[in-house]
Input
Amino acid sequence: MIDTFSAIYNKHETEDTKQMGETALFIAALKKEFTNSEEILDAATALSVGVQDFILGKVRDFPVIPVRNSEVFYIKKHTQSQVPYFHRHNFYEVLYVRKGKCLQKLDNGAELLLREKQCVVLSPETVHKIGKCGVSDIILKMVIPCKIYSETGGAVFGDTLTEGVKVFENLSETAEFAVLKLLDEQYKDNKFKNLLIQSYLTIFFAEIAGHAKQDVALETELYRYFDCNVKTANILKFAAACGYNADYVSRLIKLKTGRSFSDLLSRYRINRAKELLLGGGMSVEDIAFEVGYSNASGLYKQFFAICGIRPAEYRKLFR
Output
């Protein structure tokens, strides 16, 4: 299996290198792949540049955003000859990092770094560009026309992935197996090929959906953990309690909430301190110990950083 996939990866690299190096092949591919190819060619002529120059990163502020088009499913390695350029497409695109990493940039300035066992689903009309592929990176791109998606991913997710970008973490072995089978099946002459592709796509989406539900449950478990362990909470203990790797949990929490474990814990402690400040006659020193600080100065410092006032001032202001 490994030799088979290595041969496929090398085939993709060879094809793309040749296409990028020969203008006639490039223009033929451009006309086939982009719905606005004539607009791109006209803009290149008006700027007096070669049509490959914007793809090769030689033209800044190119006035046309290329729109990729496909009516058929395919899966392909993101090759080293491809360079980053902003584009959008009329299909769903899935990028799976089998090895290495993959940088995504969106038109709003946001950046998304995908690592091994992560994938991203990009809905139609999303404007993005894919970072340069490293020598050791194996990034697999799936192009899924809307009709095929509706029968596979749409059957699993409903309307929840109809726009924007969705990242999925720590893909299972079953999900990876489905990706590799899709890569393998597209080169076979099998009368059941389309049925197999649809089946493996459905398996893939069902697997990543199952892990997404686990991620939501993990976030809920985080706050339950804080409720019971506010004094001694740390990422290693939480990850161990959930049966996950601590690095994975850290990345997942940041991805889902936009904040780190320690930041969320600090905010939880401060919110709990607020309740105690308003709910009784406990001293600030006792409250600090109750919510997990070894001394009052730790609570004072964090409380002021988050709330902008000191604990005693908060109690006087809101009681």
